Amino acid sequence: xxxxxxxxxxxxxxxxxxxxxxxxxxxxxxxxxxxxxxxxxxxxxxxxxxxxxxxxxxxxxxxxxxxxxxxxxxxxxxxxxxxxxxxxxxxxxxxxxxxxxxxxxxxxxxxxxxxxxxxxxxxxxxxxxxxxxxxxxxxxxxxxxxxxxxxxxxxxxxxxxxxxxxxxxxxxxxxxxxxxxxxxxxxxxxxxxxxxxxxxxxxxxxxxxxxxxxxxxxxxxxxxxxxxxxxxxxxxxxxxxxxxxxxxxxxxxxxxxxxxxxxxxxx
Length: 267
What we know:
The protein is 24% helix and 25% strand. The protein has helices spanning 19-33, 52-57, 124-143, 168-171, 179-189, 196-200, 234-237; strands at 8-15, 37-41, 61-65, 73-77, 82-86, 100-105, 108-114, 151-155, 194-195, 228-232, 240-246, 260-266. The protein has seven helices and twelve strands.
């Protein structure tokens, strides 16, 4: 790799918790930060009502898949995407189409996911969550190469380490913080993925991307969870210069309960 072929590549992920309610935050952040790729989850809007024109005006291409009130994923990008696919199975009637969208940008495949939350451990949705992780690993095996550049990001609904929640003793057993979910997540990572935030911030505490609306002054009291992630294959992780949490969107007017995670590469 020579200086002439090296370029900056910035990617961000954000659970918007209703894109139409958070559009003021998104557009302001895009204008200020100009990421190459901006992944969104929980857009909560049917495709016919997705605010695509706002992204066009902002200078971004956007691809999306969603339904009214639930789930929904989208990717905005400065470069027109290639090879856009939806869902784990790639079928037109895939029930998971509004949870996964993949596309290629500057030769780098980006997979944006909204992993099922699970509700509670006795609920069938928790079994669905574990199955989803297993299906996702098989999707990686069948479709992608762990030896090539690839990014997986989104709201993954797992806090993988004790330091990724504000009260690990009390929260142990939660659907996003328990051994079964850790094992499912680790099996996906074992395909060949690195947690880029922990690559740059090993052991750092009080680094959270989600702060529950129901907890009074959760941001000020640092009562959060790190459940939004950017991971990549080693081929790309070696060129990752930084991965940071931007708390400003969580402190903006009418915020999402999540905030933005950003990674930058020289590729």
